[in-house]
Amino acid sequence: MSKLTRETLNKIKQEHAKPRNNWIKVGMSTCGIAAGADIVLETIKQEVKKRNLAVTVGQCGCAGKCYAEPLVEVCIDGVPQVIYGNVDKKSAIEIIERHVANKKLLNDHIYNVKGK
Amino acid sequence: MIKAKINNVDVQVKKGSTILDAAKLINVNIPTLCKHPDLHATGACGICIVKIKGTNKMMRSCCTPLDEGMDIITHDQELQETRRTVIELILSNHPNDCLQCGRNNNCELQKLAGDFGIREFPFKHHLRNLPEDDSTKTISLVPEKCILCGRCVQVCQDLQDVWALSFLERGMNTRISAAGDINLADSPCIKCGQCSAHCPTGAIFEYDQTHRAWQSLYNPDKFCVVQIAPAVRVAIGEAFGFPVGTNLTGKLYAALRMLGFKAVFDTTFGADLTIVEEASEFVERFVHKKGVLPLITSCCPSWVDYMERFYPDMIEYFSTAKSPHAMVGVLSKTYYAQKNKIDPAKIEMISIMPCTAKKYEVSRSEQMFASGHQDIDIVLTTRELARMIKQAGIDFANLSDEQPDHILGDYTGAGVIFGATGGVMEAALRTAYSLVTNKKLAKLDFNSVRGLEGVKETEVDIEGTKVKVAVAHGIGNVEYVLKKVEKAIADKTEMPYHFIEVMACPGGCVGGGGQPYGVTDKLRIKRAQGLYQEDADTKIRSSHENPFVCKLYEEFLGKPLGEKSHKLLHTRYTPKPMYKK
Amino acid sequence: MSGKNDKKIILVCDTDGKQREADYADMITSVLSEEKLDGQVQVIRVAELGIYGQGVIVKILPENIIYKISDETAIAELVSEVIKKNKTLKESVLEDNPKQLKIVLRNCGIIDPENIDDYIALDGYQALSRVIFDSSPEEVIAQLKISGLRGRGGGGFPTATKWNFARRTEADQKYIICNADEGDPGAYMDRSVLEGDPHSVIEGMIIGGFAIGADKGYFYIRAEYPLAIERVQKAIEQAREYGLLGENILGSDFNFDLDIRLGAGAFVCGEETALIASIEGKRGCPTPRPPYPSIKGLWGKPTVINNVETLANIAVILLKGAKWFAAIGSATSKGTKVFALTGKVKNSGLIEVPMGITIREIVYEIGGGVFEDKKLKAVQTGGPSGGVIPKEFLDTPVDYENLQKLGSIMGSGGMIVLDEDDCMVDIAKFYLRFCVDESCGKCAPCRIGGFQMLNYLKDISRGKASQGDLLKLENICNSVKKASLCGLGQTAPNPILSTLKYFRVEYDQHINDHRCAAKKCTDLLRFVISKEKCVSCGMCSRDCPVNAIPKNENKEYIINQELCIKCGKCFDVCKFDAVIRE
Fold first, then answer.
1. Cβ contacts of B60 on chain C, cutoff 8 Å
2. Can you count the helices (H) and strands (E) in chain A?
3. Which of A62, B384, B495, B554 is least buried, going by the fewest C-beta atoms within 10 A?
4. Could you give the CA distance from residue C43 to residue A99 in angstroms, rounded to a whole number?
5. How far apart are CA B384 and CA B352, in angstroms?
6. Which of B68, B120, B366, B494 does the annotation list as catalytic?
7. How many CB atoms lie within 10 A of CB C233?
8. Are the Cβ atoms of B89 and C478 closer than 8 angstroms?
9. Which residue of C has its CA nearest to A75?
10. pLDDT for res B74
C-alpha cells in the first residue's frame, strides 16, 4: 500500500462505496464470539466453499443486539436483506441452504429487515 | 502576586502558593497529616480540606494553589465534622497501643487525635495483621501502624532515588514494604533512615538498641566508653526544649558520664584524623598522581552502601579512609586500651550518632574488626540517647558543662563542621592546602560549599592550581555529579572534578535519619549554624593542626597513610548486588 | 437488496414475546391457502421487527408496511385487502418510529473493522482530510464548541474547552490519550466501538492532535479487551501504511502517530491522573488536580484525555457540521449517548439514543420492557459512581443535568434495569464492593471509608445493624464524598446515598424488621419446603452442597436449618416451586 493523498483517499472511497450484492457478514465482536459467532463464521465459510457459491463471507462489529447474538446479515440477489439472530451451527447451515441457495427466508431467526 | 480571601481576610501571596501556605500568613493553621515540608503534597490523608465559595467541592489546601479572587473558608461546621470523621476513620484502621509505641509522645496522628479531642472510636476497629520487618537491624518497619501517607515512599524514591520502599497491593490491603515484597535487608535499602525521620507515626523507626546499651552499662565486667558525632550536639536539645541549633556539647559529656560511661570521646577527634588521612590521600592522587581522581569521600555509610550497589564501577574513586566514627572506635580498643591498660575485650564502645546507617556500618566489612574485636559494639541514634537521658532521670537542661576524655575527645573546628553538608570538603580543603603548600590558609571559610543547595560546585585555588570540587547531599542529587564523571571517563575527557563530597541525608548529618523528628530545611540550617558557630569560635580550625592528632601519630600510628594507619584507619569496598538473592 | 422480486412476503412478529396458543403465522398461511395464494406469498415468523408491546404485527414486503394484527378478522382483512387487492389499510398501519439514532455506532455492525477501505468508503478520514487542508486548529475547536460536545466518559466536561486549554498551553510536546479503560460493571460501549469501528476513534484522535498541537497519541486500553486491542493495533498499522498516521499525513506537513498502552485492569486507572501515572510506568494512583492534565499531564506535558465515545463523535461532527450535531439532543446535552442496556430488560444490548429521550422510551420501546414482564423498580445509571432512578422518574429526559438532579449521573453509559426482585441494599452493596475492591488505597477517606461503609451495608443486609449504624453509614458517606481525592472515592457513596434517598424504607425493613422484601439478602431468609407442593423427586437433596436436605423417599423433604447455608441451590432446581423463601 502506498501513502495516500487527498485525491487517492477519495478514489478509494468512490471505488469501495459501490453497492455490492451476494455477501454474508457475521458479527464478530466479543459479544458475538462469546455466543458462538466464530463457529458460525467458520461453518458459513465451509458451507459456501462446499457448495461453491458465489458469495463473499465477511465479518463486522457489534450491531447492538447483543441479546440475539450471533448475528448474521445476509444480502443475496432476489431476497430481502435480513439480519438473522441467535444463529448456531445448525441454523447457519440452514441459512446457506434455504436463504442463499434457495432464496427463501428462514423462520424465527430474523431480527431485522433492511432496505426498502 | 495573587490576591484572594481566606476566612474573609484579604491575603496576597506569590503565584503558585498553596492555600495551606497562604492561610499560615494570616495565622490560620489548617490541620494536616500527610503533608511534610520536605516533600511535594500528595493529598493522601484528606484532613486539610477547605471550601472554595461558589463551588460545592472541598479541596485539599496542601496541594491546591491559591487563585486570583478565590474566597476560601478553612473552618466551619461541615469542614470540622468531615475532618473529624476522616480522623476517626484513620483511627479505626490504626492500632491504639500508643503507650507501647515507639512514637508515643511525638506521633503526628496522636497529636491530631488529641487536638480534635477524639474520645471514642465510633467505627469498628479493624487492624491489618502485617508482620514487622527489622531485617536491616537499622530501621524497623511496622506496616500495621502505617497510615499510608506516602512520605517514606516519596523520600526513598524521589529524595534518595533508592526505590527500596514501595506501596504494595491496593485498597484496604495497601501497605508499605520493600518493593517486591522482600525483606528490607535484601532490598536496595541504604539504611539512611530518612523514611523513619519523615514517618508521622510509629510505622518506621530506628532499630532500638537502648535496652542492649543499658545491659552493657549495668554490667560491672564491661568498660563502657562512648563517642558522640558532631551533628548530635546541635540536635539533642530539641528533645529537651532548647532552641533549635543550640550547641550542647558540654552537657552531653556530663549526661553521658551520669549514664555510666567510663570514658567520653568525641567523634570529632576522628573527623580530624579522617581529614588528615583523606587529605593526604588527595595530595597523593592530586600532586603525586598516585591513584585516580576525583577523590570521593566515604565517611557516610549510606553513601558507601549506595556506591557499592548502584555504582560499583566507581569504587576505586572512593577514599579508603574510614569514617571518623570507625576511627575512634578502633582507636578506643587499641591505642586507648593499651595506654590505659584495659583489656579491649572488656571495652564496650557505644556511639551516639545522628544516623541509622551507622548501626549497619559497624559490621559492614572485616576492616570494622581491625582492633581484633568488633571496633564499635552499639550505635545509638540521637533519638535513642534522648530517651535514655530521660529514663535516667537526668535534668539535662541544668547540667554543668564537662570536658571529654583525653585524647580521643580533643578536636578542632574543622572536625565539628563534618556534621553539615560541605563540612568534610571544607575541612579537607583547609588541610590539603597546607599539605600542598606548606602554608597556612589566610581565609579558612569556604562559603561556596556551605548551604542547602543540592549540588554545590566550586573551584579552589591552591597556589595557582585549580581544584575543582563538588558537594552533593541527598542521594537524589548524586546522579548529576556521578553522570558527569562517568561521561568524562567514557569520553576520555578532563574530569569535571578533583574532589567530591557526598552525604546521603539532605543537609548532611545534621539532617540525619536518626535525628529528632520534624526536620525541615529551616531546622537543618539552624543545626548547621550551631556547628559553624563552634568552628568560628574555636582556636584551632584545621585538622592537621590538632596537637593530639599529631601526638597520636607520634606515639602510635606513625605517619598518615603509613602501615599502621592502613591497618587500622582504612577500609575496602566491594561491589554488592542491588538485590540479595 | 434487490427489488426485482415482487413476490410478497409477510413477516409475522409477536412483539410481546409471549407463548401464544394460536400461531399467527400458521393462521395467516391457512387463510392464504384457502385463498389459493400460498404459492405466491411467503409467510415468515420473525423474532423481532424493532417494535415492542404491540401484540402481533406483520410487515409486508416489498412495500415495507407494518400492520397490527389483533385477531382473525384482521388476518382475513389483511389477506383480502392487502395481499389480494394490493391496498393499504391506512387505519391499521403502525408507524415504525425508530428511537435509536446512530452517530457513534454509525459503522458498527456494518463495516469490517479490520478493513480500512470499508471505513474510507463510508466517509472515513474525510473529516481529517478536510481539517488538514481546509481548516485550522482554531476552527476545529470553534466547531466543536458550537456542536456542544461534552465528554462521554462520565464527567460531561465540554470537549472544546478541554482541547482549548491544551492548545493554549505552550510546550515543546503535547499528547492526546484515548481512555479505553472501561471498567464499570455492565458497561461495554467502548469495547464495542473499538471492536466494531476502530478507525472512527483513530480519526478523532488525529484530528485532536491537529487541534491541540500534539504529534503523539496513546490508546490506553484495558488488557481484558484482547479483541479490541487486536483490532486497534491492526487499524493503526493500516492507517500507518496509508500514511494517515506518521509523518506528512495525506501529503501535508502534519505529523501524528499512535501507540497502544495496556491497562492492567485497575478501574481507578480510568481516572485521568491515575491513567497518566500508569502510562508513565508508575503505580496507578490519582494525583491532586490542579494541575489538570491539559496543562500538565503525561510526562509533565499538556495532555488531552478523551473517552472512546467522545473521540468517535469528532469526525462526524466536522463532516456533517456542528450545527447539525447541536440540533440533536437536549438544551444542555447535545448529540447522542451510547448505553449498554442490561439487567432485567428483554433486549439487553448496546443502544445509541439522542440525548433527551426518556428512560421509559429506552426501557420499553428499545429494550422491549422488563424481563418476564415483572414490575420495574428502578434504573441504575452511572455504574459504581451513579445511582438509581426510581420508576416515578421514568419520564425524565436523559441528559447530564437531569440525571444529576435525580442523584445519579450519566456516567460512561451503563444502564441497568432493576425489577421487583432486586433489593436496594443489595444493589448498593454490590456497587460499593466494586469500589472498595478497586480503590487504589492512596487516600484515607476512600480506602478506609469505603471499607467501613461496606461493613455497615453487610450488617444491614444480615439484619445485624441498628438505626444508629445507619446514621454512622450516612455520616461516612458524606465525609468520603467530600474528602476523597479522586472521582472514584468522591462518587463511591452515590449508590448508597441514592438508594437511601428513594428506598430508605427498604433499609428500614432490613434493620427494624429483619426482612428483605425482594428476598435477595439470604441471611434474612429461610428456605423451607412446602409439604403440599413437594413431590419427593429428590432434586434438591442431590444438589444441596452441604447435605442439609436428607433423602426421604416417598415423603416430603425437609431442610435442616442448622446446616443450610442459604445458597439457594434447592430453590433454583425445584421444578415444582416447592422450595419457598420466607
1. 288, 485
2. 4, 5
3. B554
4. 14
5. 9
6. B366
7. 16
8. no
9. C1
10. 97
Alpha carbons B266 and B408: distance in angstroms, whole number: 6
Architecture of domain B98-206: 2-Layer Sandwich (3.30)
Whether residues C455 and B124 touch (CB distance < 8 A) is answered with yes
The pLDDT tens digits of the residues spanning B244-271 come to 999 999 999 999 999 999 999 999 999 9
C123 inside 8 A of chain A by CB: yes
In order, the DSSP letters of C109-134 are TTS-TT-HHHHHHTTTTHHHHHHHHH
**Which of the 8 DSSP states describes residue B516?**
P
Q: What is the pLDDT of residue C1?
A: 39
**pLDDT per position as a tens digit, B313-328:** 999 999 999 999 999 9
- How many angstroms separate the Cα of B199 from the Cα of each of A11, B84, B228, B546? 67, 22, 25, 40
Catalytic-labelled residue, pool B149, B299, B300, B505 = B299
Which of B509, B526, B543, B565 is the catalytic position? Answer: B509
| pLDDT interval class at C186 (50, 70, 90) | confident
A116 pLDDT above the threshold of 50: no
Contact (CB<8Å) C112/A13: no
A9: closest CA of chain C, how far (Å): 8
For the domain bounded by C9-92, which CATH number is listed? Answer: 3.40.30.10
**Pick among 3.40.50.1780, 3.30.470.10, 3.30.70.60, 3.30.980.10: CATH of B211-569:** 3.40.50.1780
Asked if C5 lies within 8 A of A111 by C-beta distance, the reply is no
Q: How many CB pairs under 8 A join B and C?
A: 109
User: Given 3.30.70.20, 3.40.50.970, 3.40.50.450, 3.40.50.880, which CATH number is that of C526-582?
Assistant: 3.30.70.20
Write down the architecture of domain B2-75 according to CATH.
Roll (3.10)
Nearest CA in chain C to A61: C196
Q: Choose from B158, B169, B170, B176 for mutation: most chain C CBs within 10 A.
A: B170
ipTM: 0.94
Lowest-pLDDT range of B187-201, C71-85, C288-302: C71-85
pLDDT tens-digit series, residues B495-552: 999 999 999 999 999 999 999 999 999 999 999 999 999 999 999 999 999 999 999 9
Q: How far apart are CA B108 and CA B88, in angstroms?
A: 14
Do C46 and A4 count as a contact with CB atoms less than 8 A apart?
no
Do C444 and B89 count as a contact with CB atoms less than 8 A apart?
A: yes
More confident residue, C72 or C519: C519
| pTM (two decimals) | 0.92
- When pLDDT is averaged across residues C286-309 and rounded to a whole number, the result is 95
How far is C517 from chain B, CA to nearest CA, in Å?
Answer: 28
C-alpha distances (whole Å) from A89 to each of A42, A46, A70, B232, C253 are 9, 11, 10, 83, 51
Mean of pLDDT values over B174-202: 96
Q: What is the pLDDT of residue B516?
A: 96
C116-325 CATH, one of 3.90.420.10, 1.10.1740.10, 3.40.50.300, 3.40.50.11540: 3.40.50.11540
Residues for chain B: how many in total? 581
Picking from B49, B123, B170, the nearest residue to C472 by CB comes out as B123
Query: What residues 452-491 of chain C have any CB closer than 8 A to a CB of chain B?
Result: 452, 455, 472, 475-476, 478-479, 482-485, 490
Say whether B277 is catalytic: no
What is the chain A residue with the closest CA to C41?
A104
Do at least 3 CB pairs under 8 Å connect C with A?
Answer: yes
What is the pLDDT of chain C when averaged over all its residues? 92
Portion of chain C with pLDDT greater than 70, in percent: 98
Output the DSSP codes for C304-336: EEEEHHHHHHHHHHHHH-HHHHHTSB-SSSBSE
Are the Cβ atoms of B173 and C445 closer than 8 angstroms? no
Looking at residue C21, what is its pLDDT? 63
Which residues touch C486 (CB under 8 Å, ≥6 apart)? C268, C271, C273, C274, C286, C443, C446
Q: Where in chain C is the domain with CATH 3.10.20.600?
A: 336-419
